[in-house]
Design a protein that fits this description.
There is one protein chain. By secondary structure, this protein is α+β, with helices and mostly antiparallel strands. The chain has a domain of 280 residues. Helices cover 26% and strands 16% of the residues. The strands form 3 sheets. Strands 3, 8, 9, 10, 11 and 12 form a 6-stranded mixed beta sheet that branches. It has a 4-stranded antiparallel beta sheet with strand order 2-4-1-7. Helix 1 runs antiparallel to helix 2, helix 1 runs parallel beside helix 5 and helix 2 packs antiparallel against helix 5. The chain binds protoporphyrin IX containing FE. Protoporphyrin IX containing FE binds next to strand 8, helix 12, strand 11 and helix 13.
């Protein structure tokens, strides 16, 4: 038993308590958290904004890697969706407040999984507050979000601003959030000169987690999870498999906007997907899960052991991209990764999307927050549409719109929003031209 697994007097493991603290948030969450962290290592302080990367999404060099070299994302994450009051552009005072709040975080926390990684991103609705067009190159699109299958009915996140916080330290996450929301004027012992709420209003707060052990632990508390709990202890995700193998991910360089004032920015799509774990685990055996998550070829060749970490740094999906229609006819099923990956390769065969998804137990529902970074939103839309597997449904009646068609029978999109992540120097309420407001 590790320290984190030791039971406290109220019967929670320390790990459970810390995660619950992030989900609760605010002063109550922080108090719970600080109690449990008595004697924990200090949170490393930052070097100020200018020492942190110009790319707000420059996270990969600042998180650990696993044995196979895959990036390991911070275990605790929070998404804050905020609106600018009124109809017009924000004021210079608003910009100063947001700038001060974010710069404060960079003073307070090391830019790493042990301190805090964060980014501020802006929606198309935000940029519509201004008269000028968004100064991005022709190969960058930032449309309003839209359904990407006939049956999708998500709520669209059209709030102005999305702030994403991520850390292995729940106490860092909570302190950062308290400072941003004006509930504290310091974080990690460092004064924070302004808060986001000096300029913006919070519309939604969503939380999540990723990493071996956490989904199994949380599944116990959620509606619709079979008893006994079927989520493997080793799985970083609710559906029982590892994801985000390094060679199936884009690089930060490739998703970066190349020129203009927003160079070293990127676009970010964030979906929230409810998962029907009772059916996923109840209706299928392991081989069927492998077929639907990866590809029928992965099951036929026995490529996936357990949660799939044996795959190393590459899911091996590239061999099966041309087999979708044949697999549909032969096995009556097609794979999620197999379908999506078809639209996820550039001319040189490299992945286009940098997926950074994590799980959530918000509202006591198992869901997945799916942030994806790519140079242009139309690239995300093409990959999501490829997941529809229309050619597989046309090849055989066994594969239908949402039946035997990857994991579509088990996941339901609840929210979708599109955002521009500016470079750090323009991260505080930018104008569309990148000029001072
Ligand atoms: C609950 C929902 C989801 C789960 C559990 C999930 C899980 C996985 C897993 C296990 C893989 C194979 C390993 C890997 O390459 O990472 C994969 C691949 C992939 N997923 Fe998902 N996924 C989900 C939703 C989505 C959504 C909504 C998209 C939207 C575009 C997506 C895009 C992709 C892509 C593009 C790949 C293939 C990567 C490649 O090009 O090789 N996934 N996913």
């Amino acid at each position: 038993m590790t320290d984190a697994d030791a039971l406290d007097t109220d019967g929670l493991t320390r790990r459970e308590a810390l995660k619950a603290a992030v989900a609760v948030g605010g002063a109550a969450g922080l108090a719970a958290c600080v109690d449990r962290l008595d004697g924990a290592e200090p949170i490393p302080a930052g070097d100020g904004p200018n020492a942190h990367p110009e790319r707000q999404f420059g996270w990969n060099e600042h998180v650990p890697t696993d044995d196979a070299g895959n990036w390991v994302l911070p275990r605790h994450q929070t998404l804050l969706y905020l609106d600018s009051p009124g109809d017009g552009p924000p004021s210079a005072a608003d910009r100063d407040a947001v700038s001060g709040a974010l710069a404060g975080l960079d003073e307070a926390f090391e830019w790493s999984n042990e301190g805090l990684l964060h980014s501020a991103a802006y929606s198309p609705s935000y940029f519509e507050r201004f008269d000028e067009p968004l100064a991005v190159p022709d190969d960058v699109s930032l449309p309003q979000p839209t359904p990407l299958a006939d049956y999708e009915t998500p709520d669209f996140d059209t709030q102005d601003v999305l702030v994403h916080l991520a850390s292995d330290r729940p106490d860092a996450l909570l302190q950062a959030e308290q400072a941003l929301l004006g509930e504290a004027d310091e974080a990690n012992g460092v004064p924070i000169p302004a808060s986001l709420t000096d300029a913006l209003e919070v519309d939604a707060r969503r939380t999540g987690f990723i990493g071996a052990g956490l989904p199994r632990e949380r599944a116990d508390e959620l509606a619709g999870v079979p008893d006994p709990n079927p989520v493997p202890e080793a799985s970083p995700l609710f559906m029982g498999f590892a994801a985000g193998f390094r060679r199936n991910q884009s690089t930060e360089d490739a998703v970066a906007i190349g020129e203009g004032p927003f160079a070293d920015g990127t676009t970010k799509s964030v979906g929230n997907w409810r998962q029907r774990l009772d059916d996923w685990y109840g209706e299928q055996d392991f081989d069927e899960q492998v077929m639907e998550m990866f590809s029928p070829g992965h099951a036929a060749e026995g490529l996936v052991e357990g949660v799939g970490t044996n795959l190393g740094d590459d899911s091996g999906i590239d061999r099966f991209l041309d087999a979708v229609v044949d697999d549909a006819r032969e096995y009556g099923r097609v794979g999620h990764a197999q379908k999506a990956a078809r639209a996820n390769r550039d001319a040189d065969g490299n992945p286009i999307l940098l997926r950074r998804h994590f799980e959530s137990a918000d509202d006591d529902i198992a869901s997945l927050h799916f942030p994806s970074l790519q140079r242009s939103i139309d690239q995300f839309e093409a990959v999501r549409r490829a997941m529809n597997g229309v050619d597989a449904t046309e090849a055989t009646p066994a594969v239908r719109q949402r039946v035997n068609n990857g994991i579509l029978e088990y996941i339901f999109v609840r929210h979708r929003g599109y955002f521009l992540v500016p470079p750090r120097s323009l991260r505080a309420l930018p104008t569309p031209s990148g000029d001072d407001g």
